[in-house]
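thread from #wetlab-drylab

HS: before we spend reagent money on co-crystallization trials with zinc ion, can we at least see a predicted complex? here's what I'd submit
DV: go for it
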Amino acid sequence: MRKGKKLGFLLASIFTILLLVGLALFMTAIFEGDKPHIRLEPLPQYISSPKTFKLEIGDKGRGLKSLLVTIEQGGRERKILEKRFPFKGLLNMDGLREHRIEFTVDPELLNLGQGRADLKVVVRDYSRRNGGDGNLAVLEHKLVVDTIPPAIRPLSRLNYINVGGTGLLVYVASSDTVKSGVYAGELFFPGFKAGPKYPEDNHVCYFTIPLNLKRGYQLFLWAGDRAGNSSKVGFYYKIRRKRFRTERINITDAFLSRVLPYFSDYLQGINGSDIEKFLWINRNLRKRNTQTFRELGQKSSAQQLWEGRWLRLKNSATMAHFGDRRLYYYKGRKVDEQVHLGVDLASLAHSKVPAANTGKVIFSGPLGIYGITVVLDHGQGLSSVYSHLSEALVQIGQMVKKGEIIGITGQTGLAGGDHLHFGVMVHGIFVNPVEWWDLHWIKDNVTRKLKLLSSGVTSERLR
Ligand SMILES: [Zn+2]
């Protein structure tokens, strides 16, 4: 009897323990503390137009109960999205564990003003925690609503541009502008703040119409802000077509055997006859060098470093012009065609080369077909190029004054004899240097326009 009582007590105890364990497990399950997770993409700093977001929410525990997406601005909350997910099956076993949804924030539709706004995603699950409200997960993302595009206005009314020459547009851009400039077809030329002498919002932009620009292009002024808003306005311009000459160049075997050894490093792995090697240099290496110049042109200082008329090599004769169409002949047969994008100046052999204007050395050394080359940056996208030198006398990073000797003429690279190949670039694209040697042209096309700047028009007047 005693034994039976003992056994009964033991069984009752085990039963109670099992019941308690079961109850504990049940309670842990329904009172689970696993928070739902939220993933939102993208997380932009600014919003300028209707933007679609991808939202991913989930809950590993008892499943998702509700979702609320709002945006708050100035104490006012706007509802964007609200959802309640059904309770399904025992303990919500068949309830929702993962949910993906897209929603759009349309600043206009939501009647949002300019400035700070808080995007908020609130998700709850079916846990019995928090007085039955469930576990709470919140994602908050602060952004700035900016739907107003920058204001821009050209200041120069008459803009004459020679094909292949330099154009200058002076304009006002509102303070929210982060990037602005001139488009010539698909080519973009960035503008710069005019400088410390002028009001903050005054800008200058040097640009060109390259000789090979596809017909049907248009010129316009463009500005963008940090939020992605942009403005585009036309301006008055007149393009002057120019006739360029055609020059016939005969390639002789004597020239090839003199010039090719200079390129031995570049020609490694290039097989073929001397004329084939020459054609590789004249086409492929030239293209690669054009790319290098384009990259150098992006390194321009924001300040104007040059002043006045640009210097031309003293006592020199012009041997070839900008824009010359060069037809290359070998043994009476036309083998190639290229455009000459500088001016060839010949003086006495080993003449001293002066800096055309004040600037900073951004390249000094051998540069493919151009031989030993110096490139000077004159600021705001303008630079000058000195090629086929026998010697460069300056180093990258050095500042040079107008007239300072930067090198000695020679015939390194693809040169027929001792001369200086002089080039001027606008954002790394070659332009006709002749304009920059002409004080009248500078006065009419640059100085006169820069004078419009000091009038002090501000963007406040624009708005
Ligand atoms: Zn040349």
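DV: The two ends are 102 Å apart (CA to CA).
HS: ok that's useful, forwarding to the group
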